[in-house]
Fold this protein.
Amino acid sequence: MGLRLRSIRQRIFLLILVPVLSLIALYVFATFLTARGALTLSQASTIKSVTGQSTGAFLGQIDAERPLAIVYLSSPTGANLATLQVQQNKTNTVTAALRTALASSGTMNSATDPEKRAIATLLTDVKGLPALRAQVRSQIITKSRALSEYNAMVADAYTVLDQAILEQTDATLVTQAQDFVRMGRAEDLMLQESAIISGDLAARSFPAADREQFTQLVGARRALFSQTLPDLQPQYRAYYTRDISPQATTALAGLENQLMSDAHTSSPPPVQPQAWEAAVGGVAAGLSKAGTQASDAITAQASTNSDDTYLELILAGGLGLLAVILSIVVSFVIGRGLIRELAALRESALELANVQLPDVVNRLAAGQDVDVAAEAPELP
């Protein structure tokens, strides 16, 4: 009797336990997914705010140092060296901040493996910067070699930015942010053009190799810019179309065409230094301003997405936990009720089978009148 009762209890317990455990598993899974998304967004925010800002500042200063180094190699005067050293001091300030930011425990703990590799490469480049500067000061490195090393350093900095962007979870934000980086690369190609021309203006010559490299850079920049701008969403594209001066763009294109068509190698590039610097500076200023505004806008959108994800985590965790607790309580109450009803039914059946029915049979066998319906009523 006791074994059978426990069997009933066990069966009802299992009947209730399976859906409750399934509900708990779904709750844990949903909460885990939401929490993982929130954690990823938090880590991405750390990478962006720490790595992105310091790398962006480094790019701004190293971009300014690069043409001055090429100019000094082309014309090693005291004035050019002094100008270069002033800029190197500015670069040193942001380089120290870059090292601190990239090597910090917060960055390393939040970074993915590709991000860590990109950071390690950039830090190696930065470590070799003093040696590159020493070669420039000593005039023991060619212009093309120095330009190549500066360009590699800039490219590795952009790789760090790319990897930081890829830590975001929103596909649209990632795509747009990568487009911003490509626009930045287009600006860097223009600055590489400017470094070549600035060096050749200082050297008062325009070698065929420099003209060929310049032509390749112009083609690459124009293609990258024309391909990337249409990919931007209208609200982001508006920054670039508004902030980049059409006059500066037209002037730059005219000067580039003039330089690419020049066939002389023994004379300086056929442009006025002031006109060239004004055109490049105007376009660069517009690109930088537009890129900053677009980055701020997309960062605000990412912050909103992060807040929404945390809200989802709170709702999924709180309401889900409440639903699980309520389900357990209701299941326990219903289960106890079923056990009591089944136990009572069992006792009534035993009473009917072992007591009432044998008594009715005995009375009938003795010839007594028996009201069967009254003596053996239906079980409740």
